[in-house]
Give the backbone structure.
Amino acid sequence: MSIYDFTVKAQDGTDVSLADYKGKVLLIVNTATGCGFTPQYSELQDLYEAHQKDGLEILDFPCNQFANQAPGTDDEIHTFCTGRFGITFPQFSKIDVNGENADPLYQWLTRNTKFEGFEGPAKLMLAPIVKKMDKDYKNNGNIKWNFTKFLIDRDGNITARFEPTADWKKAVAKIEEVL
């Protein structure tokens, strides 16, 4: 199975085949509108504006599984993101990324990657919260929090996973390398 075998729901509820993105570099992100990492939407939009012409697509999947930080409807989330952060990259319907109701795309992504560890000052705050939810969090590929990112190359291979606390400059360097 490859990433191009998945179909996901667009923000408006229509089906989107990820095969439509063949030949593109993808950054797949689970997001939330009420999270401490929500300002990362600005960084994502800046990256998109700089590199969409180079073949980068950012695929945004809102998720309400982490402290109920994406409580709105798909339309409310989209209105917030376009109004507050001016996002222009594709936004999809809200999904679960972990558990028995996890979207098949995220089941595949988490089965084929491992947790990369938290970095920086946010590590001190986030690690204890995540440990309460998943005592074995360091040893499985489950999504730990909003704004986890997966980098997919033009051939559909997962080339990197960035946790929400990852150094953004290093992440951008890796994305630009893959482009």
In short: The chain has a mean pLDDT of 95.
